[in-house]
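Journal club side-thread
Mid-discussion, someone asked how the predicted structure for our own chain would compare to the paper's figures. Pasting it here so we can look after the session.
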Amino acid sequence: MTLCTNTGTYLDVPFHRFEDGHDLTELSLDRVAAVPAICLDRRGETAIELSTTELEGCEGMAVLVRTDHSLKFGTDAYFEGHPYLSGASADVLVSAGVACVGIDSLNIDSTADQQRPVHTRLLGADIPIIEHLTNLASLPGNGFEFTAVPPKIARAGTFTVRAFATVPAHR
C-alpha cells in the first residue's frame, strides 16, 4: 500500500528533497508549534520577491505568505499561473533565520521550474515548508502564533498537517 503524504495542507522537511535529509521523526517542534509569526500580503504578485528589510527581526519566526490563491482551490484555475517565491526570496528567508515558511498557493516554487530552487534552499537550511494554506486573510500582519505539526513518520519527508494560527483576543 502506498500512502499519499502531500494532500491538502502539508509540511515538507529535508528528506522530501534530500535523501540524507532528516525525516518527520526528527522535525524540531520549535520550528512548527506555537511559533511567533508574520503574514506578508502578496496578493496580485506571481513571482514573489521578499526583501531583507521586511524580514528584519524575523529570526525564529514563521513567515506566512498570503496570495489568496487558495480561493481558487477546487477549480482548474488553482493549477494555472499560481504565485510562488523566487529563489532570491528563499535566500533572504535563509539569511533571516526563519523557523518555517508557508504559502496559500499550489507550490512555493514555480512548477515551470523543475529544479525547485525554493524547496532546495529552504529545506537545505532545515526550514520546513507548508503549502496549500487557507484563510490567511483572517490573520493580522504580526502578533500571532502559527502551528503546523505533522505526525512522526519514519522515512517520510512530507505529510498533511492541521495548520492554524492563534491570535490573541485583544487584537
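Post-session note: Helices lie at 87-96, 117-124.
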